[in-house]
Amino acid sequence: MHKVPGFWIEFARNAEGGGAGDAMAAAASGGDGGGQGGGGGDSAPPPDFDWAGTLGDRHAEFAPTLTAKGWKSPVDLLSAYSALEKDSAGRVAIPGEGATDEERAAFFTALGRPATAQDYGLAKPVDMPDAEWDGERMGRFGDAAHALGLSAAQAKGIIDWLAKDTNDQIAAFTADLPKRQEAHQAKVTEGLRQAFGGDTPAALERAKRAYATYVTGDAAQAGIDALSEKVGDVEIIKMFAAIGRDIGESRMKGGGGGGGFGARTPDAAKAELATRNADAKWLEALYSADHPNHANVVAERQRLYEMAYPAS
Q: How far is CA 119 from CA 142, 143, 146, in A?
C-alpha cells in the first residue's frame, strides 16, 4: 500500500492526544472529521419523543391534545402541569350538588359573604327618600342575602339599585301626575254628568254637606278612602249626594224642632259650621247686609250655633 510520507509519524505522535488519530479514524469510517461525528460542525436535533411507543394503545386518545398543545416531550407536559398547579392554588372550588353546608359556607366566605347578616351594615342610601326606606324590611333582606351567600358588595349593590329604581319611579310618577289627574277629573266629570245631568252642581253641594256631617274622624275617612279605591269617586259622590238629599227631605217633612236641625248632634252641627265657614259664597251672604240671602244665612248660622253649643 502506498504510504503518504510522514503520515505514520504524525499518527504515532498524536496517538494519545487525538488530532490526526481522530482524523484517521474518521477517514477509516468514511468521514472527513468535520461531519456529524466530529466536534467542529452543528449537532443534529434530537428526534421527537416517541409518544406513540410510550402511550401504546392510548396514543390515539391523547394525540389530539398533544398536537394542540404542541408538547414534544414529557418535560413540556410536566412544565404545563406545574404552571397549572400554581395558577389554581388560589382558586376556590365551586361546591357540587352533593356539597355539605360547611363546604358551601366556606365557598361563600371566600367570595366575600360576611360572618353574619348584621355584618352587611345595610344603611339607607343618601339619595333614597326617608318615606321609602323600611329598616325592618331591609333587615329581612339581609337575612335572605346571607342565606343566599351574597357578598357584602353584592348586597350593597342591590340596595343601591333599589334606591335608584325608587327615585326613577317617583320622578316618572311626578312627571306624569298632572296628565293623570286631568284624565281622572275628566272621567269623574263625565260620570257625574251621566248620573245627574244639569243637577250636577246641586248634587255636588248635597254630597259635600253630607260628607262634612258624617265623615268626622280618621277612621271614617280611612273607610271612605278604601271604599273609593274599590268603587271609584263617582259612586262615592253619588252616595253622599243621596244622603244629602235624604237629609234635606227630612227637614222639609219637619223631622224635628229648630228648622229641621233638631235631629242633629252637636258634633254634626259643628262639622256643618266648619263647612259653611269654608264656603266663600255663604260667608259673602253672611257678612253683606244687602245680600238677598243675608237673613236666611244669619238664621241658619244661629240655629247651627245653638245645636253645636247647647246651653248647659
A: 9, 10, 10
Cα 18 from Cα 16, distance rounded (Å): 6
Is the pTM higher than 0.90? The answer reads: no
CA angle 31, 36, 41 (to 5 degrees): 110
What's the Cα-to-Cα distance from 219 to each of 214, 215, 216, 231, 266, rounded to whole Å? 11, 9, 9, 18, 19
Instruction: Provide the grid cell at 212.
Output: 262634612
Please state, in angstroms and rounded to a whole number, the distance separating the CA atoms of residues 209 and 282: 13
Whether 278 and 243 have beta carbons less than 8 Å apart is answered as no
**What is the mean pLDDT of each successive set of 10 residues along the chain, which is 312 residues long?**
44 47 44 47 66 89 90 88 76 82 89 93 90 92 94 94 93 91 91 88 86 84 88 90 74 39 66 83 84 78 80 58
The 10 Å CB-count burial string (b at 16+, else e) for 76-110 is: ebeeeeeeeeeeeeeeeeebeeeeeeeeeeebbee
Q: Determine if residue 50 is left, alpha or beta; phi over 0 gives left, psi from -120 to 50 gives alpha, anything else beta.
A: beta
Residue type, 106: A
Measured between alpha carbons, how far is 106 from 99 in angstroms, rounded to an integer?
11
H helices of the chain, in order, are: 7-13, 20-28, 51-55, 59-69, 74-88, 101-111, 135-148, 152-196, 200-214, 218-231, 233-252, 266-277, 280-287, 294-308
Question: What pLDDT score was predicted for residue 198?
Answer: 85
Q: Which pLDDT score, from 0 to 100, does residue 1 have?
A: 45
How many whole angstroms separate alpha carbon 56 and alpha carbon 65?
A: 15
Query: What pLDDT score was predicted for residue 34?
Result: 46
Can you give the C-alpha Rg of the chain in angstroms? 51
CA distance 248 to 254: 10
Residue 15 has what pLDDT? Answer: 47
Q: Measuring CA to CA, which residue among 153, 154, 175, 172 is closest to residue 164?
A: 172
